[in-house]
Recover the amino acids of this structure.
């Protein structure tokens, strides 16, 4: 050993003599052995603690750079369940004294164990979940289509819950507590809430309420299957092109076309756009001032009957076109020629974005097979009407807005603000 040290010293001295730069001598291939076992930090369960819950939490963290594996056991190592280096999990244990062993080793086969003793005394759950209904309120009549639904289900062993508005035919899952808005239509409702726990105890409760928010009119959207394509169009140009194509397929004049194209010159009467609304059957009544009440199909009266609803929002038929249409009526005593009546009517489709702006309407003259008819330079009143069918199948109309045109500029002079009317005035809102 002494000779080795002397030879090494001589070698180093010779190196120093040959070069003025010191070259360190490195022992290659020698690596220090890891002789430190993993360190186990077990945060729960706690030593000597009495657990009366359904599960016992196991939380741990193993400090080791060369971590290899870990496991735990509750039966003195007979069953070893693998663990990650750190984490949390719930243990489902039986009542009585329990001993938990946590084992960890590293790549050098150093290992550690941690043992904790505690007691489990689970109290049997015999109580079903308690359902607390916050809203809607029992027996309340809501004047809005948006109904707040809020609930809390009290149960430490909560498993699942659902609600239904159709006598449990459709079950919609919900969390243990929460809030959501229900978008409904006019009618009477029974809201059923169901909840169960992990021991299969179940509870069921219900709330009876009704919605009476007035008649819903959405002049932008077709609720009919024939209008499904129209509803997907995103620009006004696309909607206008769609209307022109559909009208080209569906023109049926019930009176001869006017010899003079009206172009909104007051004095011509044109409302006879055929919308194939015969799906209603033969029982729809129409008011005719000359003959009194009459059946709609006892002779076609020239009324536009597309986009008609019954019971304040339930569609009966949109016709072949499937378009949300109505009637636009001009009345002008000031500017009409003295020898002509002062009324003229056409159809409208609100292809734009704002109910209160006349320029957002596409005007159709069915008597002359025209769309995008331009308004006159002056007109006392341009009236936008929406037709619908009542519960007793009587054809009615509602005036939505009125405009006046002066020197080519339209302005809103009236809007229907009936509190019993739910009128959509902006597209997409």
């Amino acid at each position: 050993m002494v000779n080795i040290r002397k030879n090494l010293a001589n070698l180093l001295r010779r190196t120093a003599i040959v070069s003025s730069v010191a070259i360190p001598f490195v022992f290659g291939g020698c690596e220090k052995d890891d002789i430190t076992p993993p360190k186990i930090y077990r945060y729960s369960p706690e030593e000597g603690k009495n657990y009366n819950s359904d599960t016992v939490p196991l939380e741990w963290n193993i400090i080791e750079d060369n971590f290899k594996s870990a496991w735990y056991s509750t039966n003195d190592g007979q069953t070893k369940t693998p663990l990650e280096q750190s984490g949390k999990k719930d243990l489902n244990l039986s009542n009585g004294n329990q001993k938990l062993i946590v084992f960890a080793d590293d790549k050098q086969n150093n290992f550690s164990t941690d043992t904790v003793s505690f007691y489990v005394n689970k109290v049997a759950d015999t109580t079903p979940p308690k359902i607390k209904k916050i809203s809607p309120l029992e027996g309340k009549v809501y004047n809005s289509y948006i109904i707040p639904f809020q609930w809390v289900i009290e149960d430490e062993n909560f498993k699942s819950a659902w609600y239904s508005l159709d006598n449990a035919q459709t079950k919609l899952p919900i969390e243990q507590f929460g809030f959501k808005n229900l978008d409904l239509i006019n009618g009477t409702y029974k809201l059923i809430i169901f909840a169960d726990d992990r021991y299969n105890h179940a509870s069921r409760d219900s709330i009876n309420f009704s919605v009476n928010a007035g008649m819903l009119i959405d002049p932008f959207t077709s609720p009919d299957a024939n209008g499904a394509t129209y509803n997907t169009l995103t620009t006004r140009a696309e909607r206008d092109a769609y209307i022109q194509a559909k009208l080209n397929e569906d023109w049926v004049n019930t009176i001869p076309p006017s010899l003079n194209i009206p172009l909104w010159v007051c004095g011509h009467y044109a409302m006879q756009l055929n919308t194939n609304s015969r799906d209603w059957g033969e029982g729809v009544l129409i008011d005719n001032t000359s003959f009194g009440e009459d059946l709609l199909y006892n002779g076609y009266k020239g009324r536009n009957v597309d986009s008609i609803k019954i019971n304040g929002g339930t569609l009966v038929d949109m016709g072949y076109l499937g378009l949300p249409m109505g009637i636009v009526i001009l009345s002008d005593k000031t500017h009409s020629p003295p020898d002509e009546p002062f009324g003229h009517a056409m159809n409208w489709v609100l292809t734009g974005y704002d109910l209160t702006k006349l320029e957002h309407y596409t005007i159709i003259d069915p008597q002359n097979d025209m769309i995008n008819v331009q308004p006159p330079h002056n007109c006392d009143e341009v009236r936008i009407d929406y037709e619908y069918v009542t519960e007793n199948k009587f054809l009615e109309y509602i005036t939505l807005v009125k405009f006046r045109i002066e020197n080519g500029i339209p302005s809103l002079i009236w809007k229907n603000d009936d509190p019993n009317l739910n009128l959509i005035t902006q597209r997409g809102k």
Notes: The two ends are 94 Å apart (CA to CA). The chain has a mean pLDDT of 75. Residues 188 and 210 are 4 Å apart (CA to CA). Residues 216-423 form one domain.
